[in-house]
Every structure is written in structure tokens, then in C-alpha cells.
Amino acid sequence: MREGTVLSAIYHKMVTQHTFAKRVFLVAGIYGLAVLFPQYFMEGQNGRDFPPPINHPEYFYGFIGVALAWQMVFLLIARDVQRYRLFMLPAVLEKFTWGLATLVLYAQGRLAFVVLGFGIVDLILGTLFLFAFYATQPDRR
Q1: Chain centre to alpha carbon of residue 45
Q2: Quick one: pLDDT at residue 51?
């Protein structure tokens, strides 16, 4: 195989892997902003739809604020996946902790099915984040 062909194949693989990672984090960030930001205005609605009403709003708004901050991190990672690659690991943790918590709470009968759906989306995104982390590892030749 000619050197130019090998370099071209390596470059194509690297670009494809980086494109996958960029898209995963970009989609996750946009999705998260779209789902989370309206929650700031839905405290009362959440209390009616999923009783009892929220008794500790500081936890509710704290959760939303931290989760929104993470969406900004996902968008940052999408801009330069190689530079911010190590941030992918805590991003996986962020997705898995929420997703696994929803599974446990649903199994205990303490969570609505619709909320479980959002937890499953986070588990899928966390898995894609892991794939993106491995896909963007530097070539060690």
C-alpha cells in the first residue's frame, strides 16, 4: 500500500470519528437545552402533573441550573472534541447517574413512566459519549 493511501485512510478515519463525536455532543447539548430550560417555568405544572407539589424549590432549581451548565459543556466539547476529550468522562458520569437513578426509582414505584423515558434517553446519550471518547483517542503508533 502506498504511503499516500495509508495517510489518506488514517485521515478519513480520524475525521469520521471526530465528526461522530462532534455530532453526538452537539445533539445532546441542543436536546438538553430544549428539554431543561422550559423547566424553569414549570415548577407549578410539575407539582400538578406529578404530585406532591415541590416542597424544596432550591433542589428543583439547583438541579435545572446544574443540568443546564452541563449542556453548555456538551456544546463546548462539540466545538473541539480533541481538546476537550477528557471532559467526556465526567459527561458520561453525568448521564449515567441520572439515567440509573431513574431506573431504580421507577422500579421502586417512585417515578412516573414519562420521566423514566428521559432517563433512558440519558443512558443512551451516556453510551454514545463513551463511544465518542474511544473513537477520539489519539493514534498511538
Answers
A1: 25
A2: 85
Do the beta carbons of residue 81 and residue 137 sit within 8 Å?
A: no
Look up residue 98 and give its three cell numbers: 441520572
> What residues does each domain of the chain span?
3-135
Model-level pTM?
0.86
Helix intervals (H) in 1-141: 3-36, 43-49, 57-79, 88-107, 113-135
How many other C-beta atoms are found inside a 10 Å radius of the C-beta of residue 32?
A: 23
Angle value at C-alpha 121, between 119 and 127, nearest 5 degrees: 105
User: What pLDDT is attached to residue 138?
Assistant: 84
Query: Which grid coordinates are listed for 88?
Result: 467526556
Longest dimension (CA), the chain: 68
pLDDT reported for residue 99: 98
| Full DSSP string of 20-49 | HHHHHHHHHHHHHHHHHGGGGG-HHHHHHH
Stretches where the chain sits below pLDDT 70 are: 1-15, 140-141
100/108 Cα distance (integer angstroms): 13
Are the C-beta atoms of 106 and 113 separated by less than 8 Å?
yes
